[in-house]
Amino acid sequence: MGASRAQPRASSQIGADEVRYAVDVAAGRRPASLLLRGGRVVNVFDGSLAPAEVALAGRLIASVTAAADAAGAAAMAPEAVVELEGALIVPGLIDGHVHIESSLVTPAAYAEGVVPRGVTGVVWDPHEIANVAGMAGVEWLLERCESLPMEVWITVPSSVPSTPFETAGAELGLAEIEALLEHPRVVGVAEMMSFPAVVAGDETELSKVALAEAARKTAEGHAPELAGRALQAYLASGIGSDHESTTLTEGREKLAAGAFLMVREGSVTRDLQALLPLVTPRHADRVGFVTDDRLPHDLLDEGGVDCLVRRSIRAGADPAYAVRCASYNVARHYGLRRRGAVAPGFVADLAIVADLQGFAARAVYKDGRRVAEDGRLLRAAAAGPGERPAPAGAVLGTVRLPALDATALRLDDPGGPVRVIEALPNQILTRALTLAPTVEGGRVLADPARDLLKLACLERHGRRGSVGVGLVTGFGLTRGALAGTVGHDHHNLLAVGADDGDMLTAAARLQELGGGFVAVAGGRVLAELQLEIAGLVTDAPLDRVESAMRALDAAARELGVTLPAPFMALSFLGLPVIPELRLTDLGLVDVLAGGIVPFAAEG
Amino acid sequence: MGASRAQPRASSQIGADEVRYAVDVAAGRRPASLLLRGGRVVNVFDGSLAPAEVALAGRLIASVTAAADAAGAAAMAPEAVVELEGALIVPGLIDGHVHIESSLVTPAAYAEGVVPRGVTGVVWDPHEIANVAGMAGVEWLLERCESLPMEVWITVPSSVPSTPFETAGAELGLAEIEALLEHPRVVGVAEMMSFPAVVAGDETELSKVALAEAARKTAEGHAPELAGRALQAYLASGIGSDHESTTLTEGREKLAAGAFLMVREGSVTRDLQALLPLVTPRHADRVGFVTDDRLPHDLLDEGGVDCLVRRSIRAGADPAYAVRCASYNVARHYGLRRRGAVAPGFVADLAIVADLQGFAARAVYKDGRRVAEDGRLLRAAAAGPGERPAPAGAVLGTVRLPALDATALRLDDPGGPVRVIEALPNQILTRALTLAPTVEGGRVLADPARDLLKLACLERHGRRGSVGVGLVTGFGLTRGALAGTVGHDHHNLLAVGADDGDMLTAAARLQELGGGFVAVAGGRVLAELQLEIAGLVTDAPLDRVESAMRALDAAARELGVTLPAPFMALSFLGLPVIPELRLTDLGLVDVLAGGIVPFAAEG
User: Fold this and answer.
1) Interface A:B, Cβ pairs < 8 A
2) What is the mean pLDDT of chain A?
3) A594 in the Ramachandran plot: left (φ > 0), alpha (ψ -120 to 50) or beta?
């Protein structure tokens, strides 16, 4: 963190002058910088929606008063007035848990997508960037978060690398976690994904929780389907939340056991419908809204955490409480002061909406400044790519492949049946198949006619130069190759192909781009998306990313692909924590058996 | 704080071994230290009361499981079992704001009074001790809090001294407040009583709030009757609570404005009845229960914060929510982790009650150990005076009067009408009267026939040796004198008398005792209570203090006193922040005019 570690004062911190300004404006000694008049305030404290005038003093809300008060002699004439004509003033929404990388863009581009919708803050677990660029990557993004029209708080990734069966770009050990916890933007330790280790009392995992506790910050949970004694053990560690509940029973048990229940509506996993009965004022400060992972097109079509507010209200949730779940409750969970409410002394992050059901932001204020209106970020608020600080070394040029010749993806015939990964539509689970391979001259070949394709995982962090090769079925590719540098969680280069040459061409092109996705056939690039930052995200705007992804999907379909969202599916084929069979740079991993297995099937 | 400042690790902090133990017990790898079986748990998270078995692992709750789970093969046989036969398991109650000094006892004796009632924690503002013994006094009591059967958290007194019109024993400036905020038992800056200065934007007062915020702790409020713009300005400072609401309108406005609403039921000020409609689950985490000040007899008769739980439920409040207001909500407000709930990973501070209406604790557990049953503290938990660390120098021998001769209390006739304080029954407000004094030989005399008595305030901290003398009416004393070293907030020695000699005898006796209350007549001590610690509290048990106070009140009545609770009334006659007329060691203070005034009435 260099110089910033010595004096970690994030711009999000409130200065003494700012506080005095707010006190002066409220007391009527100084004019408000802005008066929002004629609106109704959504009050997260008492659940009311009542007419009120909101006076701002720079970045802070100075006062929220009944119109009669504000019109009184005590108030000085404000410097500016906005007439709201009955619209609602809502605290700017805060997403309780998100991996921005899933949207394939930088925080700046992400903000361009969600700020106009009323999202003024997110808690980001930069798990993917950390797996590529480690401490330096997290330091880079912490700096990157300083000048956005959206507040970004960070949870320190707790699982870098995720398993010993892969080569990640970096490690974040206890010392790194402890150092990062000191940064004022860091609000906790991110989701403790190795829940079996926590339940087993693993010393390193418990130490991560203890570090968060010692720093008076949170340790976040990730405990899919955990219940009964195992759930009790997981929470006894001090982990304070969970965002993996998919059923009402699961959510109810976790909430009762003391976990802050994060209700998630991501792109792949959508839990709001199931958990809706728990979104009730009876559950007070114990429920929050999160998106976790949102693909570019969903972010464009449905928005970020605003989507949960809108949907839950339409489905019958108490409107003020739905807002609370995406604002004050999240702020409270993370101990964020002066955040998540329209009240004196709070930061003036606000959205103006005509009604809560629609939740279409007419205007959005960040730090007391208007940053968006009618669905568009205002020019002044949107730092163009030219104005943004250029990405630094740690996150650029991260695709460092070993030298690869024509034989790099060769698979020798082991003589007999082999293990084959089956990719399944619309889920990240895979199946482990045993098939007789198609063999020629002692080599196992891709055989598109049988939908048997080569799958390769190429270590791309310049560390080991290791290459894993295997077979996959389920894509339907008839020629060419698809490849990408997004490969959870180690983010090595994954390529699937009907042809070794096209796979190598794709890898070479990704090295040139510094990361991204490509579709190749006949030695020619048919479509591509550059993800130049850590090989995971780009500084390009969200709509460009979304159209590039559509072009890539179209190219894949042209090459015969029948699997939906094939590049996303490919990015999960290397994830050795989800059953059944995976391929990393170190080889095939049998997830349930918990180890590397040979290509040749047993027996 | 000496050595403890370098390594401030309060016993309340949870160690890594303790966490591992809890995880192991929950997971079934180790036997529970204690299993509470057959009870029903009051769940503050979802508001439910459901049958459950609670397994403890030393100081922590390891698991809270349905009976079916606990009986399963996974659980190991516990080391001990208590059968609860349908009784309720409630989180140990936490009083959100209390001045223990008002009960005239040390924290240890206070704990003896309230722990058997289910109160296992208090947030103490040691405002009185700090005004006498300053930093050294607070350091002493922080040490004193380490070995109690009750958790004591401290808020740093913010108003020491309270005004410039008095000589307190010490000052706590910004540097002292900042240093104390580092201590792990310190949870915030105590009630910011100088609310007009905060509203006025006073730099020192705003700095106190900023120090709390920088330490990620709270700044507590005290804003009686503040409303409208002034309230908004007060809260814009960052102050996060208020416990001075006495009407529903006032409480509702403060809650809506974002203050954590502390509902108070003290000895003098009782607000629960008025604020009861706000004690509703709709207000989620925004309401807490506090006692503020409780006299010894009220503490014995009605209890501590348990009184609010009992009364609010009897008056119709949601039972689980009433418990939440005196447990989880308070813990949450102060950022106390692992406190205030019966849930895995939480500290095993628990009360067992047959029903919530009665809230009579059958047993109380602190840190997983049974410390009280059937209304009595268990011997092992109650450190006898012999076992308690002896009070140290800073808080002993604090009555250091100047040399006083027979003329010390002389009042020269100013020639004309003089200012007289009128003490009023059952309130701490006084009235300022103008009367012709009774004069003899150029001296103003006490004249019991007119209920005109001498009132003296003797600086007793050994600092200035200043003595204020005046007249008071309303006591009805016909002979002798009453005196005490409790004198808000400076705690100089206050004496009221029909006779200068008896007043001086009383003062001399208090010097011998090191503080307390005495009733004297004819040169003889009729009754007394020693308050040897800071001249404010004693290590004696609560019932002894209560009977001594009854004897003192009886002696006062014998001397003709008609004013109820005359020693308490006396203790407030020197408080220069409550209208109208007061006497400090520096002379008469006209509170509304805001300054020292002469004995002679103007005109």
Assistant:
1) 206
2) 94
3) left
> What pLDDT is recorded for position B603?
53
In this structure, chain B runs to a length of 603
Residues A406 and B427: their CA atoms lie apart, in Å, by: 95
Cβ B245 vs Cβ B256: under 8 Å: no
Q: Which of A20, A229, A252 sits opposite B26 (nearest CB)?
A: A229
Q: Looking at chain B, which residue has its C-alpha nearest residue A26? A: B233
Alpha-carbon span A32 to B129, nearest angstrom = 42
pLDDT of A284 strictly over 90? yes
The ipTM estimated for the assembled molecules is 0.93
- Best interface-test mutation with A: which of B229, B254, B255 has the largest number of A CBs within 10 A? B229
- What percent of chain B shows pLDDT beyond 90? 90
Whole-model pTM? 0.94
Q: What is the pLDDT of residue A6?
A: 36
**Which residues in chain B have their CB less than 8 angstroms from residue A230's CB?**
27
Cβ distance A45 to B335 less than 8 Å, yes or no, reads no
Q: What is the mean pLDDT of chain B?
A: 94
**Which H, E and C letters describe A531-599, residue by residue?**
CCECCCEECCCHHHHHHHHHHHHHHHHHCCCCCCCHHHHHHHCCCCCCCCEEEECCEEEECCCCEEECC
Kindly list the residues from chain A whose CB atom is less than 8 angstroms away from the CB atom of residue B198: 23
Query: Does the beta-carbon distance from A236 to B62 stay under 8 Å?
Result: yes
The answer to whether the beta carbons of residues B518 and B527 sit under 8 Å apart is yes
> What gap in Å lies between CA A222 and CA A235, rounded to an integer?
11
Question: pLDDT at residue A2 above 50?
Answer: no
Task: Count the Cβ atoms, other than its own, within 10 Å of residue B523.
Answer: 11
Mean pLDDT per 10-residue interval, chain B, length 603 residues? 40 87 97 97 97 97 81 74 97 98 96 97 98 94 91 96 93 97 97 94 97 96 95 98 97 98 94 97 97 95 97 97 98 97 98 96 97 92 60 87 95 96 92 97 97 98 97 98 97 98 98 98 98 96 96 98 96 92 97 93 75
Mean pLDDT score, A420-443: 95
CA distance B310 to B405: 53
With a cut of 70, say whether residue A385 has pLDDT above it.
no
Show Cβ contacts of residue A598 under 8 Å, excluding neighbours closer than 6 positions.
A414, A419, A587, A588
Point out the residue among A46, A72, A345 whose CB comes nearest to the CB of B255.
A46
Q: Find where tokens 């082991």 sit.
A: A414
